[in-house]
Amino acid sequence: MNKKKEAAGDAALKTISEPALKRLPLYHQYLKKVHSTGMQDISCTRIAEELNLTPILVRKDIAYTSIQGKPKTGYSVEALITAIEDFLGWKNTNEALLVGAGNLGNALLGYRQFNEYGLSIIAAFDSDKAKVGTTVHGKKVFDIDRFENITQRLKIKIGIITVSADSAQEVSDMMVRSGITAILNFTPVKISVPDGVTVQQVNLASSIAILIRSIE
Amino acid sequence: MNKKKEAAGDAALKTISEPALKRLPLYHQYLKKVHSTGMQDISCTRIAEELNLTPILVRKDIAYTSIQGKPKTGYSVEALITAIEDFLGWKNTNEALLVGAGNLGNALLGYRQFNEYGLSIIAAFDSDKAKVGTTVHGKKVFDIDRFENITQRLKIKIGIITVSADSAQEVSDMMVRSGITAILNFTPVKISVPDGVTVQQVNLASSIAILIRSIE
Predict the structure, then answer these.
(1) What is the pTM (predicted TM-score) of this model?
(2) Of A15, A161, B5, B145, which sees the most CB atoms within 10 A?
(3) What ipTM describes this predicted complex?
């Protein structure tokens, strides 16, 4: 379903690989650090050394942001920070809706770091009537029945799933039906989505399983 | 450094692949769901169908837990749940220490789901004197200077890093020096650890970068 959209999405993503996209926030945090020490300019070689990468890879990744380096000195640290933020869309605020105002959901509603990554959770949804109407870290909790309507009205594209595992697929289906095309899934369930919908899973259960296994 | 330990660790991990280890929590949550509906027995084929996997893969994964299937009916749902929990060490409590009692750290201190995954955060550490001595979700915040001593005294092997990106490597080094061999890293920094130390990274910045890029 929605093959046309998928094709368009694929083409857009092809301009930068997922690993490269994942490295840009890493460069950004390093650049912020060197910027705070007063450094004006920086070379790819220097960034590469610090982050255990190759200069060629760093140069290629940075080229995606369309910034121009200066001969000999490399890049202006400040300009490079801005270029990465622009490229990653951190300057814009990308609004998201969260479903599941439980323990983890509430924690994420108060996680201010999301704003630095260009993401703003504007409201939460839950099926538990006791939670509906409450405010968590300044964000209102709405009845899940209103999700589709609010998502479409505000044209929100990003959904965050923090419900229990057994509701994950159902919530994902509802999100997709409502027009959500990017999902951050905090449940251990591998959710199925149609073409054109991007899912990123944060699987704490799996990460912990690997750590515990390693110490036994 | 510590080559001997690495070799032992590698051998232990070889008994089950990382992808297989990541799938076991998924089976577990599905089995809990079917168990709650009253189902007594289940086949690999049924699990595979539900989770979009192949029956052969599911059978191989489950074999790691050493459970015996029954001809025709498959596995007892209840016995399989217990076998997976035993294998993953969820029945034991694996104690962990958290460094960085900020916004995210505090949220994780209150994240009760960790207990279901066999992990118990018993204390937090911070360098901010204003936080030291406070209690967050029932867990005490200690001065970071006491980390090494407490870790060694209690023989803790798991550390959770929720400091800001620019302190991540420093905290990781301190953890390793203190005897931590399994690290859950919530910063965007790719930390360097010696052989024999297992790291799992939860990189929210990267996941969000990919989602935002996909909607543009």
Answers:
(1) 0.75
(2) A161
(3) 0.76
